[in-house]
Amino acid sequence: DEPLAAPRVGDICKRIDAFAKPVVAALHGSALGAGLGLALAAHGRVAQAGTRIALPEISLGMMPGAGVTQRLPRLVGAQAALELMLSGQAVRADDTRLKRLFDQITEDPPEAEACTLAARLAVAGQWSRGGDTARGLSDPAGYQRAIASVRDKLGAQRGAAADILRAVEAAQLLPFEQGLDFEEVLFDERVNS
């Protein structure tokens, strides 16, 4: 029942995204909620085979925060992002819907491969930040079809699912920073409700 403590996960994600050196997340076991949000803020992601990811906030009447609604659709598109956020169910990292989310999936512990990827990005001197990523936005019409399909299913329903839909739509329509601000407003409204 206490207010969210500082630093907020969204603030940490912004710092990771803007960091002067490449940050690569190594995932194994389960990455849920804010943990997945931190991984999405990284400049690269390596997962061990069998890793499970989930955004279970919907089961609490909440929506993901920390930029998840802006970063995930930019990586995997609206359809996969909405399915993950609205179901709250865990999926394996090697799920075909998530193929653009990970730079590599390895059978071995992911730390060594993550370090190799980080070194490769550092040598190249360039890496993709949250606002630069647009793989999931490459089919604007398909993105809007996914939004429209979920909107039809939700109807006039309000609540966390409707907020998630609005935030994911904003990922396509607004510049990245404005999308983050919009998500934060929706998230705070959910917390206060």
Summed up, what is this model?
With 193 residues, the protein is mainly alpha-helical. The protein has helices spanning 9-18, 34-41, 68-76, 78-87, 111-124, 140-154, 160-173, 176-192; strands at residues 24-27, 30-32, 44-48, 52-54, 91-92, 104-106. The chain is globular and about 50 Å long.
What does this structure look like?
With 193 residues, this protein is mainly alpha-helical. The protein contains eight helices and six strands; from the N terminus they run H-E-E-H-E-E-H-H-E-E-H-H-H-H. A three-stranded parallel beta sheet has the order 1-3-6, sandwiched between helices. Strands 2-4-5 form a three-stranded mixed beta sheet, with helices on one face. Helix 1 (9-18) runs parallel beside helix 2 and helix 6 (140-154) packs antiparallel against helix 7 (160-173). The longest helix is centred in the last third of the chain and has 17 residues, at 176-192. It is globular.
H/E series, N to C?
Answer: HEEHEEHHEEHHHH
Low-confidence stretches: none
Structural class: mainly alpha
How would you state the average pLDDT, rounded? 95
Helix content: 40-55%
Give the percentage of residues in beta strands: 5-15%
The N- to C-terminal Cα distance equals 12 Å
Question: What characteristic shape results from the CA principal axes?
Answer: globular
Radius of gyration: 16 Å
Helix segment count? 8
Query: Could you give the count of β-strands?
Result: 6
Major beta sheet, strand line-up: 1-3-6
How is the biggest beta sheet arranged? 3 strands, parallel
